[in-house]
Structures are given as structure tokens and as C-alpha cells.
Amino acid sequence: MLRTLIVGLGHAGLDLHWAVLRRLRASGADRDLFAPGPAYGFDPRPDADPPAGEELTRVGSLAEAARVLDPAGTVVHLCTPPVARLELLRELAALGFRRILVEKPLAVDLAAAEAIAALRRDAGLDLTVVAHWLDSALTTRTLEIVRSGRLGELRSISFVQRKPRLRRTLLRQGHPTAFDAELPHSVGVALRLAGDAQLVDAGLSDMHVGDVRVPHMGTARLEVRHAGGARTDIFSDLTSPVRERRITVELAGGRLVGHYPGSADDDYAHLELLVDRQQTRSVFRDDSLTTFLRRVYRQYADGLDGAPEFGLNMRVATLLSEAKAHCLAAEAGLGADLGVELVPATAGELAGVAEGMERV
To answer: What's residue 173's pLDDT?
Structure first.
């Protein structure tokens, strides 16, 4: 049986990970995975709100967590922003924690991703990136159709990811670009469906709210070419007024259009298949984070090797790092031509806009 330590008690740690873990811990089917007693939580932010309920006990430091838990028998959920992750991983490793789930994205640049990969190797960590779209029922059904070959050769994949993320972006800048928010999901699925890929093109835009501009947090666009010849196009908009997570797969003999659940409030996916002008549609439950966490805990309990999964997520981090570098290089050239200095919004400006949105 495994104990649980959640590091980072914000949206991902409490609203996502802990919400799912509470259900799994209460489930008779999964009771053998979780040791009796409370889970533990730690947040490096001194002003973080304490968790509610006796099932999750807060500790004041990672060292205290190592004293009250057996690190060798504990799964750590590292849910801090990606810009503040490497040092926490080093501290966890030094304290003896080995099984660590890392919230996506793995890192914000290639240097950080490579440092994490080196730490994983040198410290013998069993790191798993939280990439639950790979465990999605929609992804699984799509993969079965593509790999079956019954609709012929895969020609292209496209994703549209629209998600209003204004308030969270204005309150805290944990993600440096729009590439870090939604694209880790879709890039991983594209690599799973079509194999490894190379960057073709990428683009970024800023987020604008009133007079405040948050650089690089508006929209993101990515185009890659897969080794087998297919192409993937991804567009993400964090300023959209609506939610949409759509995948379109073009095959020689048909088209597949899928919609991932828009939020945890309604965890159902939709799949439409168009073949010879005949359209079929199905709707099914797709609680991918629950499926993912149950699988990973079982994997940890059984001592299975997660290296291939980590390798896929390293490729995701590499492609996104290359896309950022491409965009920043293009931006530097444009800024020089126009004489524009790109200045981030100040903390005071962000707090003021966030406070105004809170009152609306």
C-alpha cells in the first residue's frame, strides 16, 4: 500500500489531484492501493490556504513530510508551477522520495527538462508526468481506429483548444507562455497517434485584458511533421469566451472528430466518425484523470518501469521548447524592426485587474 504527499495545494493539487484521490481512496475496488491514515500536503507558499478536512493533513516542510511518512512507500504529487520545480525535485530526492508524479508541463524550457531527466537518472527517481489525455477513453478509441488500418493511411491531425484562463493568468504567472498551459496534452496525443515529429512552424500572441497585457499568454499555434509523413496542427486560445477541446483526424478512408470533456463538471466525450458520407456519433464517459491516477498508482505498486512514458513526455517538452525558441527569435527580429520593447505587466497591474474581475 502507498501513502500520498501532495506538494502544491493550489488548483491542480486540491481541485484536481486531491478530488480524484479522495474518490479512489473511498472506493472498495482501489482500497488495496492506499495505506490507511491521512494523505499529507505541503505548499511552499507561506500564504497558501490550509486544506479542508481531516483526510488531508498539512505539513510545514518537506523534511517534516519525510519524518511522518516513509519516503520509499510514498507517491508524491508535485503540483507546483513549472517555473518552480527543479529545486523541489532535488529536495525530494535528497529526502529519499522516489515515486513522483509531476504536473504538466514537465519543464518550461529544454535546459530544465534535461536537468530533470539527469536528476531522474542519477537519483533513481520513478518520475511520471501527469499527461492524462494519453489515458483518455477518446484517445484510446481514436488510437484503435488509426492503428487498425481499416480507414487507411493517417494524413493529418488537428487540435483546437479553447479555454478561458484570464483570471488564473492575471492572479499568478506560473506558466510563462500559452504553450505551457494546454498544448502538453495535445502534443502528447499527437505523438502517440502518429509517432515522433519535427517542428515546422509555431506562433504566440499576448493576452490583453483592458489596459493590461500579459506577454505570450494569449494564443499558441504549433505545426509539426511526423516521421510517417502526417502533419499535426494545434491551436490554443486562453482568452476564448468558450471552452472547446476538439481533435480532428483525417484518414484516407474517413474523418474522425472528437471532443474531449470541457471540464470536470461534465466528464463525457463525443466522437463522430464520417465514412462514405455515413456519420456515426457516440457519447461516453471519459474521466481520464481518474483513469490515469489509478493506473499510475497500480504501476508504482507493481514496480513496473515507467521509462517509455517518461521518454514520450521528454519529446513533448523538447518540441514545445523548440516552438518557444522559434517564436522568441521571430519576436526579437520583429521588435528590432519596429522599435518595440516587450515589457511584462507589473505585479501591481495584474493584481489590480484580478481584483476587478473578482468583483464582476
So the answer is: 67
Structural Rg of the chain based on CA atoms: 21
Q: Biggest alpha carbon distance in the chain?
A: 64
Q: Which residue has the higher pLDDT, 28 or 134?
A: 134
Written as nine digits, the cell of 157 is: 491531425
Rounded CA-CA distance 115/261 in Å is 33
Rounded to 10 degrees, the C-alpha dihedral 223/225/229/234 comes to -30
Assign residue 345 the CATH number of its domain: 3.30.360.10
Task: Output helix, strand, coil percentages for the chain, rounded to the nearest 5.
Answer: 45, 25, 30
Residues 194 and 341 in one domain: yes
Over residues 57-65, mean pLDDT: 95
* DSSP secondary structure string for all residues of 33-50: GB-SS-EEEE-S-TTPPP
Do 139 and 88 fall into the same domain? no
Residue ranges making up the domain that contains 38: 3-103
- Mention every residue, 6+ apart, whose C-beta is less than 8 A from residue 194: 146, 154, 157, 226, 228, 230, 232
The domain total for the chain is 2
pTM: 0.89
